[in-house]
UniProtKB/TrEMBL annotation:
Cofactors that this protein relies on: NAD(+)
The species this protein was found in: Sulfuritortus calidifontis
Location of this chain's protein in the cell: Cytoplasm; Golgi apparatus, Golgi stack membrane
Keywords associated with the record: Cytoplasm, Decarboxylase, Golgi apparatus, Lyase, Membrane, NAD, Signal-anchor, Transmembrane, Transmembrane helix
Single Gene Ontology MF annotation: UDP-glucuronate decarboxylase activity
Membrane-traversing stretches: none
Pathway(s) served: Nucleotide-sugar biosynthesis; UDP-alpha-D-xylose biosynthesis; UDP-alpha-D-xylose from UDP-alpha-D-glucuronate: step 1/1
Residue intervals of the NAD(P)-binding domain: 10-307
InterPro entries: NAD(P)-bd_dom, NAD(P)-bd_dom_sf, UXS-like
Enzyme class: lyase
One Gene Ontology term, aspect cellular component: cytoplasm
Name this polypeptide is given: UDP-glucuronate decarboxylase
Any Pfam family matching the protein: GDP_Man_Dehyd
Length: 315
């Protein structure tokens, strides 16, 4: 039964790294949460601690198929985010972004829900503009190994704006930059989890290329706060809006920080750079600061400590 005034929120990809933190936060805020996930890259372990909560509901479902539920808000996060996961079944990755967006937009249209899309800094590809602002159109290789993810997300943005213009949907598009924290999958292949797991095991730290490429790392709690603020922002604010931490580090610097914080004796080993790996990435978050009154609060050292603690306890 619906309780008056209690928001019913759908989180697709809710059993993933970011989705599980978002479900937790929404429950804390007093919402009813429906978590939809096909467990492609997420796990039940991520949300096991929420299953006893009567306001939490878990549904195994693939968003490439239609979904008929009644909700007030939709956070569309379903999509593998790590290159090894999204390149494992690239056709499914594109389908998840494109068919998934169509189905969730169709659902939002029918039930008049507000809908937020987790887009990505990857829409900028290997950028010629630095730092990246929302008005930069990007430089994506449409036929490369990363294209299933990048172009899928770009097409999802297109669909969001067309549903907004054509059907007057209330949309929010967030371009997320690299985010890390507890509940990243230990084998998920992303740089922060790889380096921490390797350092804790005393294994070599695998730097791809010469490690001079840069990324900007946002701690998960900061990112979740931004997503909530974006969903609650005025209806005339659609985004796209960059969400991330503007602190920019080379991958080598990251490796050195992880070694120092874990006290590990691991050495760096250098592997070839994967194709189409962007050279630099740093968000301009001026728009998020202005419209959402948001900026990240957790420094890289602080965030890494919390993440290391999580992995040291067994993940
Ligand atoms: P994740 O892989 O941990 O979570 C994605 C979740 O989506 C998983 O639980 C997975 O099982 C689920 N999923 C995948 N395909 C699905 C489908 N067809 N139907 C239903 N569920 C499906 O990744 P994450 O880091 O939590 O990323 C969440 C979202 O944020 C993704 O859309 C990702 O593209 C976006 N994003 C993340 C980052 C980051 O650094 N973490 C950066 C940019 C964008
Ligand atoms: N859809 C859904 N849930 C709903 C309503 C629609 O999953 O509650 C899906 C449905 O599969 C449809 C898609 O969303 O194909 C797009 O819906 P829309 O109404 O925009 O288009 P149409 O039904 O005309 O294809
Ligand atoms: N990377 C690395 N070693 C690893 C995993 C990744 O040097 O074990 C590099 C990767 O080549 C990229 C950066 O770290 O330059 C970030 O990679 P990640 O897969 O985390 O995210 P994305 O490339 O999607 O930003």
């Amino acid at each position: 039964m619906r309780v008056a005034n209690r928001k019913r929120v759908l989180v697709t990809g809710g059993a993933g790294f970011l989705g599980s933190h978002l479900c937790e936060r929404l429950l804390k805020d007093g919402c009813d949460v429906l978590c939809v996930d096909n467990f492609y890259s997420g796990t039940k372990d991520n949300i096991a601690h929420l299953l006893d909560n009567p306001r939490f509901e878990l549904m195994r479902h693939d968003v490439t198929f239609p979904l008929y539920v009644e909700v007030d808000e939709i956070y569309n996060l379903a999509c593998p985010a790590s290159p090894i996961h999204y390149q494992w079944d690239p056709v499914q990755t594109t389908k998840t972004s494109v068919h998934g967006a169509i189905n969730m937009l169709g659902l939002a249209k029918r039930v008049k829900a507000k809908i937020l899309q987790a887009s990505t800094s990857e829409v900028y590809g290997d950028p010629e503009v630095h730092p990246q602002r929302e008005d930069y159109w990007g430089r994506v290789n449409p036929i490369g190994f990363r294209a299933c993810y990048d172009e899928g997300k770009r097409c999802a943005e297109t669909l969001f704006f067309d549903y907004h213009r054509q059907h007057k949907l209330r949309i929010k598009v967030a371009r997320l930059f690299n985010t890390y924290g507890p509940r990243m999958h230990p084998n998920d292949g992303r740089v922060v989890s790889n380096f921490i797991v390797q350092a804790l095991r005393g294994e070599p730290i695998t730097v791809y290329g010469d490690g001079s490429q840069t990324r900007s790392f946002c701690y998960v709690d900061d990112l979740i706060e931004a997503l909530i603020r974006l969903m609650d922002s005025p209806d005339d604010f659609t985004g796209p809006v960059n969400l991330g931490n503007p602190g920019e580090f080379t991958i080598r610097e990251l490796a050195e920080k992880v070694i120092a914080l874990t006290g590990s004796r691991s050495q760096l080993v250098f592997h070839p750079l994967p194709p189409d790996d962007p050279v630099r990435r740093q968000p301009d978050i001026g728009l998020a600061r202005k419209v959402l009154g948001w900026q990240p609060e957790v420094s890289l050292a602080e965030g890494l400590e919390k993440t290391i603690e999580y992995f040291a306890k067994g993940g």
